[in-house]
Design a protein that fits this description.
Elements (H helix, E strand, L loop, with lengths): L2 H15 L5 H16 L2 E7 L4 E3 L6 E3 L12 E2 L1 H9 L8 E6 L2 E8 L1 E6 L2 E6 L2 E7 L12 E3 L1 E2 L4 E12 L4 E3 L13 E10 L17 E9 L9 E6 L1 E2 L2 H5 L7 E9 L8 E3 L3 E12 L5
Antiparallel strand pairs: 1-20, 2-3, 4-9, 5-6, 6-20, 7-8, 9-10, 9-18, 11-18, 12-16, 12-20, 13-19, 14-15, 14-18, 15-17
Helix pairs in contact: 1-2
Length: 297
């Protein structure tokens, strides 16, 4: 019999002998039972944004996670970068760029920049967004929200925590990029989303309309970041993914089903509504994924 299993069984037995009213014993027993049921939290992947790839000659760059990636096959995407190339005849200053230190990339800068708005086309503020997934270039102009294809294949375990080291500062004035008279927030905020979802038979992606509401979502997490980091200092935050559909969460099976994980970092949390502040800037130094390894039955 497995020694680890015997040790755990003895520990649980010893806890059971303690007083039923002992809160420490109850808490410890609950923790051990959860570990036995769900497995151990482990680090599955870390992104440091030190390698970037040029998507086409003279155009913008995107973070690369391995030397095998090419311009048409990257883990990270940015519809805001690609959209900017369509709004400007000579694009030079993109929403998502490398964070350079000592002449080398050491992170990513995601920012809200001034855009272009003519006769109902475009927007005066382009909110930077870096996400795992793809861009459907064919619908980027006509259906911008549907053009964001969120998620990359994920099979290492059930993602539970996304840790990220960041700096954030908000731009001075929040505006509606298309001039609509709507109530605006007093201050811009960055946003971070993590969505773990099941791939169905049609293999379709979540997009800007379905990212938070699709029935295929197993677990997700979302946070808005205020500019609380002192100038020049870095802050590390942990975003936890919580089950959305408990039955689907309990039924996760990497042997018979496929899943994607969407990670989305934006410099303006309402950027999809064309609302944000020019000058808002989210800097990323490192992103780490931690999984709850699902036990084999």
């Amino acid at each position: 019999m497995n020694r680890q299993f015997i040790s755990l069984a003895l520990l649980l037995a010893s806890l059971a002998l303690g007083s039923c009213d002992d809160p420490i014993a109850v808490k410890e027993r609950s923790l051990q039972e959860r570990r036995l049921k769900e497995g151990v939290l482990t680090t599955s992947q870390t992104f440091d944004f030190t390698r970037w790839i040029e998507v086409s000659k003279g155009a913008y760059r995107l973070p690369s996670i391995s030397p095998d990636e090419d311009a048409k096959n990257t883990y990270w995407s940015s519809a805001s970068n690609q959209g900017y190339t369509m709004l400007s005849s000579k694009p030079t200053d993109f929403p998502v760029i490398p964070l350079e230190e000592d002449g080398a990339p050491r992170g990513a800068i995601i920012r809200s920049i001034k855009g272009f708005y003519f006769f109902g086309f475009g927007t005066n503020v382009i909110a930077g967004a870096l996400y795992s997934g793809q861009v459907d270039a064919g619908s980027l102009v006509s259906k911008p929200l549907q053009s964001t294809l969120f998620g990359q294949p994920y099979s290492s375990g059930i993602p539970e925590v996304v840790k990220f080291t960041y700096q954030y500062k908000a731009g001075e004035k929040v505006i509606h990029g298309q001039g609509k008279s709507v109530e605006l927030p007093s201050q811009d905020r960055a946003s971070v989303s993590a969505v773990f979802y099941e791939i169905t038979e049609d293999e379709s992606y979540l997009n800007g309309l379905t990212l938070q509401t699709d029935a295929r979502i197993v677990a997700k997490g979302y946070v808005e970041l205020e500019p609380t980091t002192p100038e020049g200092e870095w802050q590390t935050s942990s975003l936890r993914l919580s089950p959305v559909d408990q039955a689907r969460y309990d039924a996760v099976d990497f042997t018979t089903k496929k899943y994607r994980l969407a990670l989305v970092f934006s410099s303006s949390y309402r950027g999809a509504e064309y609302i944000g502040a020019v000058g808002s800037e989210l800097r990323l130094r490192q992103v780490t994924l931690q999984d709850r390894i699902k036990p084999h039955h």
